[in-house]
Amino acid sequence: MATDVTQELAAFLRSRRERLDPRDLGLPPRRQRRTPGLRREEVAELAGVSVDYVVRLEQARGLRPSADVVEALAGALRLSGDERAYLFGLARQRPRGEDEAATEADPSLAGLVADLAPRPAMVMNHRFDLLAWNSEMARVLVDFDTLPPSRRNAIWLCLLHPEIRERYVDRDRTVRDGVAHLRAAWAAHPEDQVLAGLIAECVTGDEEFARLWAEGDVRLNGRGDKVMRHPLAGRIALRFETLTSLQDPGQLLVIFRAADDASQEAMDGLRQSLT
């Protein structure tokens, strides 16, 4: 049965208000409390909104609270991280700071990348900065440790790195897919100034990118294939899969595998030649 979002928002706010113990929030005890938990007046005071506003929200009277109000209510009601995200979803709002990109891979994901060897794997944030990788991934692309941190970015490597950009056999499709994927990321994180700077650099640094960006294609490429001309291993056909961590949705795990037997032999030879 379909659930009315406004009604669910109202019920959720009531349930979380009623479960709180006023003493845990440092509120003075009152002798007569006909209902459990906090009173609406107390929630309103803690959240910095009017009592009438809280009443109207709990009565599902068509209000759509702003992101700031949702954040204030989440704090007043002492919501957990998951509950806070649920409240933002019900209110159809985005949390402040959501555009902040992770700068380090979660230790569990970094460990998983190492465990996935000999399959090339890496972890990226939403702007495609590389946060963790295994040695197999470095052998396929480049020794990332030799690059400045600002250049450890999958989109920049694919589009602007003077050597890697020429390795893709079907470069036109690769660039088009990369631009469409980058536009989707930009739309999802419009306040990310670092991401906006990367896009501006690509627009000014590559005529092909600028032309494709102007076309406005949007597409998420969570899986697919790439064919590369590796300077040591020769032709390698790779399939990739991009997975999102439920615990850290801003971190993407990308796994490559050989698309055919010849490519697997090339990958094996590459690994053995560099051990």
Can you give me a brief rundown of this structure?
This protein has 275 residues and is α+β, with helices and mostly antiparallel strands. Helix content is 45%, strand content 12%. Residues 31-84 form the HTH cro/C1-type domain.
Description:
This protein is α+β, with helices and mostly antiparallel strands. Helix content is 45%, strand content 12%. It is built from twelve helices and five strands. A hairpin with a 7-residue loop joins strand 4 (234-244) and strand 5. Helix 2 (40-47) crosses helix 4 and helix 4 (67-76) runs antiparallel to helix 5. The relative contact order is 0.10.
Structural topology:
Blueprint: H1 5-18, H2 40-47, H3 51-58, H4 67-76, H5 81-90, H6 107-115, E1 121-124, E2 130-133, H7 135-140, H8 154-159, H9 171-188, H10 193-205, H11 207-215, E3 223-230, E4 234-244, E5 252-258, H12 261-273
Antiparallel strand pairs: 1-2, 1-5, 3-4, 4-5
Helix pairs in contact: 2-3, 2-4, 4-5, 9-11, 10-11
InterPro entries: Cro/C1-type_HTH, Lambda_DNA-bd_dom_sf, MLTR_LBD
Organism: Lentzea sokolovensis
Pfam family, one: HTH_31
